[in-house]
Design brief:
It is built from eleven helices and 15 strands. With about 375 residues, the chain is α/β, with parallel strands linked by helices. The longest helix is centred in the N-terminal third of the chain and has 16 residues.
Length: about 375
């Protein structure tokens, strides 16, 4: 699946003033509400995954909208209804009011810090520089940062999944740099997502064999249960792979494709996930216009892990929980635990034979390899 832009970058483009946009058309509050509810009813992919009774929410919120409802009141009513979806990929933007709303976990940063403040907060690198033996290096236009954090333990962090050729070249270069490493820490905290093809290509460079890690289905009809046939996503070892011990760091600021990357990495026996749950938004976004000139996005497909578990609204669980997302100066408990684990005997290999068994069962089936 291709994300058009990482979540926050997309927000920035969406919310930037558009001088050429014409005046919003004249539409009643009822027409605008009905258009929003109906489009979700026909296109949103996750009602069944989240056991949401969309009709019941209509029955609660529709009576609150009248011909005399102001734009501010209408925005609040629609945002309140959408908030029950608990989905960062559900956004409502009213340029005429200078307002925006996100229905998921990341929304709290947008609401409390404003767009500029939220982007600045989320753009900060997660690991304090004191943990590097030498100043870290960057590659890929600054997207990737890497360096040694112990004599034979490498570390790299990246901010998004974009530019498939540039990203794979950068990771190949990083793996070559760490060719003598005994272990590695890969960090996708504060990663805003992007293109799922890129996350698969990077995960392929850590794969020991073919393993099924994700199944996706696109909604294709008016019923909440109408979906296309499933697409199967399989990690497939590349020519250069790293199969020594790896710890993947995640937290609630690992968003969208970063979460699908976590699904891919966690089926590898030599990878241990340390940190907090990811953000909990996996699906691809689709944008729609409202009759009054406002815009909104919705999740158009359903993602599960290889075993059929859907983590939407929940996030990918870590193997070893270290709660928290706020950076504290010179302190990083999740990283420090990861480093201590790798400095010892390291985590034991995990039994991920079922993911390999599922990949074998798909022989002859069209898969994304």
């Amino acid at each position: 699946m291709i994300r058009f832009l990482p979540v926050l970058a997309m927000m920035f483009v969406l919310l930037a003033p558009v001088a050429s946009r014409s005046q919003p058309p004249d539409a009643s509050p009822e027409q605008t509400f009905e258009s929003l509810w109906r489009t979700f009813d026909q296109k949103y992919a996750l009602f069944e995954a989240k056991a949401v009774d969309w009709q019941a929410l209509y029955n609660v919120y529709r009576p609150r909208v009248t011909p005399d409802t102001s734009d501010e009141e209408l925005f609040e009513i629609m945002a309140a209804m959408l908030s029950h979806l608990n989905d960062t990929h559900v956004l409502l933007q009213a340029e005429s009011l200078g307002r925006e709303f996100s229905a998921g976990y990341i929304g709290k940063y947008l609401n409390t810090m404003g767009l500029a403040g939220a982007m600045q907060f989320l753009a900060r690198r997660p690991l304090p520089e004191r943990f590097f033996r030498l100043p870290p290096e960057t590659i890929g236009g600054g997207q990737f940062l890497y360096g040694w954090v112990d004599e034979d333990i490498g570390y790299f962090h990246f901010t998004s999944f974009n530019d498939i050729d540039g990203s794979t070249a950068a990771v190949d270069s990083i793996l070559e740099y760490f060719a003598g490493a005994r272990a590695m820490i890969v960090d996708v905290r504060r990663n805003s997502g992007g293109d799922d093809r890129v996350c698969k290509e990077i995960a392929d460079r850590f794969a020991d064999r073919q393993r099924l890690y994700m199944v996706t289905r696109d909604r294709n009809g008016p019923s909440h249960g109408d979906f296309d046939p499933p697409k199967y996503w399989i990690v497939n070892p590349e020519q250069r792979t790293f199969t020594k011990p790896v710890i993947l760091l995640t937290n609630r600021l690992s968003v969208s494709s970063a979460e699908n990357f976590a699904l891919a990495m966690r089926v590898l026996p030599h990878v241990t996930v340390v940190g907090d749950f990811t953000s909990g938004c996996f699906a691809d976004m689709a944008w729609n216009d409202l009759p009054n000139g406002w815009r909104f996005s919705l999740s158009k497909n359903w993602f599960t892990d290889y075993a059929g578990r859907c983590w939407e609204g929940i996030g990918v669980p870590p193997d070893i929980m270290v709660p928290g997302e706020e950076l504290q100066e010179h302190v990083d408990p999740a990283f420090e635990l990861a480093l201590a684990l790798l400095q010892g005997d390291g985590p034991a290999l995990q039994d991920e034979s079922s993911s390999a068994d599922e990949a074998r069962k798909l022989a002859g089936v069209k898969c994304i390899r």
